[in-house]
Write a structure and sequence with these properties.
This protein has helices spanning 18-25, 51-62, 96-104, 112-120, 177-187, 216-227, 256-266, 290-300; strands at 2-4, 11-14, 36-38, 44-46, 67-72, 93-94, 124-129, 137-139, 156-172, 195-197, 204-211, 233-246, 273-277, 280-286. With 308 residues, it is α+β, with helices and mostly antiparallel strands.
Length: 308
């Protein structure tokens, strides 16, 4: 397996499966050490988080396998974390786009890079439990012609507690302002997630973004250096989390975002930031209230009552 990129976070650039093919043709069982490969200099490099699952999917793609089975300690993908919502249902089938979004938003069962690789090369992925023969969850394109647009849209509720927020307030805006803010963060290796900019008023606006808690100190320091020359100040908040409602085509059907906001409002849970796409609505909220938010949303969207 050929790897490029930085040590500890390499990416797969190529696979030569011929040796595996010949051993399989002989009836051998091939065991491959995942999570690692070799760079152009012949040095061993690791793939970083999610590398084992990604290795398995990449090998399945290279071998043109019918599917890739990932064995873990859970029964499959659920409509919410069963440790928080005991009534959560196992999802029998889920599309790669929904699964990748759930993974990016906090679901830990599969890493999004493995899901995206499977989607790119048409590899069907089955997530199953190591301790029983139950069917688990199939990650594949769902083509149920019986339901078409009448099928339920919401796939699940996911959460993430590794969230902090940095805000630059009252900054002078103009061409290149956003680059001036985020280029130093990128150069420092700080990964930014949700970004919200307020509408400019009298030549000034506010820009807020989220980072992991590990990246908060560096992001706050850099934001302070950026804010002062452009007339603003920096604020920060660490004890935050995200809760997301994920499902294909949500924005094409009105009411999902409103229901989410109404549910959180009735529970007295303040919303710090909002991020939306065609497939998800995410709210940044206080970390202490994330579990309550997950339970309330799972109940409000009636996920425990549906055959998903």
């Amino acid at each position: 397996m050929k790897i490029t990129g930085r040590y500890g976070s390499g990416v797969i650039s190529g696979i030569n499966p011929e040796r595996m093919r010949s051993l399989l043709a002989e009836g051998q069982v091939v065991i491959v050490a995942g999570f690692q490969g070799m760079n152009a200099l012949g040095d061993v490099m690791t793939l970083g988080r999610g590398g084992s699952d990604t290795t398995a999917v990449a090998l399945a793609a290279a071998l043109r396998a019918d599917r890739c089975e990932i064995y873990t300690d859970v029964e499959g993908i659920y409509t919410a974390d069963p440790r928080i919502v005991p009534e959560a249902r196992r999802i029998r089938e889920i599309s790669p786009s929904e699964m990748a979004e759930m993974a990016w938003r906090g679901a830990k069962v599969m890493h999004p890079r493995a899901v995206e690789l499977g989607a790119l090369y048409g590899v069907e992925i089955h997530v199953r439990c190591s301790f029983n023969e139950n069917p688990g969850t199939a990650i594949k394109e769902v083509r149920d012609l019986e339901r078409l647009e009448t099928r339920e849209t919401v796939a699940g509720i996911v959460h993430d507690l590794d969230v902090s927020r940095v805000a630059l307030t009252g900054i002078r805006t103009g061409p290149g302002t956003m680059s001036r803010i985020f280029a130093p963060l990128a150069e420092a290796g700080v990964s930014v997630d949700v970004i919200v900019e307020s509408a400019p008023k009298e030549g000034a606006s506010d820009v807020a973004f989220t980072v992991s808690r590990a990246g908060f100190a560096e992001a706050y320091r850099l934001a302070g250096e950026i804010a002062e020359p452009i007339g603003g100040r920096v604020e920060g908040e660490e004890n935050l989390g995200k809760v997301s409602v994920v499902g294909t085509g949500m924005l094409n059907r009105p009411g999902y975002a409103a229901k989410m906001f109404d549910t959180l409002g009735k529970a007295g849970i303040p919303i710090r930031m909002v991020s939306t796409s065609e497939i998800q609505v995410t709210c940044v909220i206080p970390a202490a209230q994330v579990e309550e938010a997950v339970r309330r949303l799972h109940e409000e969207f009636e996920l425990e009552e549906r055959d998903v």
